[in-house]
């Protein structure tokens, strides 16, 4: 789900409201979510039937998003969002770090490569994101003037 709108139009508030609409996890799903959290060394959501809602900061690294292998494999945020949602507020600010995302959304798994092979982890989540219609945020607004060039709008 991609929410596009002018600055201060309520995109982020609306996206966060979705969190309360997600149905609870089944016991089996909750066990899988807890296993991934334990593997990553993070806290299990409380109560354990609440679906994960992972909202990375715009400066997050690709390794933190997708997982990495340094001495041992560590799940990324896409795996911690398994059975829940990954919320990317201001999607364009994540830019080039997201090149792997379409494949992960299709396959619903993520692969962490390392010298001895590769580890595949679950990553079945709903992607929720917000964006402005252009860099200044006012493209197409009936009451404000967009300051961007057509090239800037297209690239954005
Ligand atoms: Zn603009």
**Main CATH class:** Alpha Beta
Query: How does the overall form come out from the CA principal axes?
Result: globular
Distance between the termini: 18 Å
Secondary structure category: alpha/beta
Query: What is the helix tally?
Result: 6
Order of helical and strand elements: EHHEHEEHEHEEEH
The quaternary structure here is single chain
CATH superfamily: P-loop containing nucleotide triphosphate hydrolases
Residues in helices, as a percent range: 25-40%
Q: Strand order across the biggest sheet?
A: 1-8-5-2
CATH topology annotation: Rossmann fold
Ligand identities: zinc ion
Briefly summarize what is shown.
The protein is α/β, with parallel strands linked by helices. Helix content is about 30%, strand content about 20%. It has one domain (about 1-155): Rossmann fold, CATH 3.40.50.
Give an account of the 3D structure.
This protein is of the alpha/beta class and 156 residues long. It has one domain (2-155): P-loop containing nucleotide triphosphate hydrolases (Rossmann fold), CATH 3.40.50. It is built from 6 helices and 8 strands. It has helices at 11-19, 27-40, 62-66, 77-80, 101-107, 150-155, and strands at residues 2-4, 53-54, 68-70, 72-74, 85-88, 109-114, 117-122, 126-131. A 4-stranded parallel β-sheet has the order 1-8-5-2. Strands 3-4 form a two-stranded antiparallel ribbon. The longest helix is centred in the first third of the chain and has 14 residues, at 27-40. The two termini are 18 Å apart. The relative contact order is 0.19. Bound molecules: zinc ion. Zinc ion binds next to loops.
């Amino acid at each position: 789900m991609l929410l596009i709108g002018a600055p201060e139009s309520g995109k982020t508030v609306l996206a966060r409201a979705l969190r309360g609409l997600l149905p609870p996890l089944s016991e089996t799903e909750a066990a899988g979510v807890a296993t991934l959290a334990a593997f990553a060394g993070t806290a299990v959501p409380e109560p354990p039937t609440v679906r994960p809602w992972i909202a990375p900061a715009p400066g997050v690294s690709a390794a933190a998003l997708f997982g990495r292998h340094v001495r041992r494999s560590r799940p990324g945020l896409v795996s911690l969002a398994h059975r829940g949602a990954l919320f990317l507020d201001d999607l364009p600010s994540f830019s080039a770090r997201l090149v792997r995302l379409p494949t992960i959304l299709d396959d619903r798994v993520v692969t962490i490569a390392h010298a001895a092979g590769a580890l595949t982890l679950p990553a079945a989540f709903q992607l929720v994101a917000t964006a402005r219609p252009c860099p200044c945020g006012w493209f197409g607004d009936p009451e404000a003037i967009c300051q961007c060039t057509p090239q800037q709008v297209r690239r954005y």
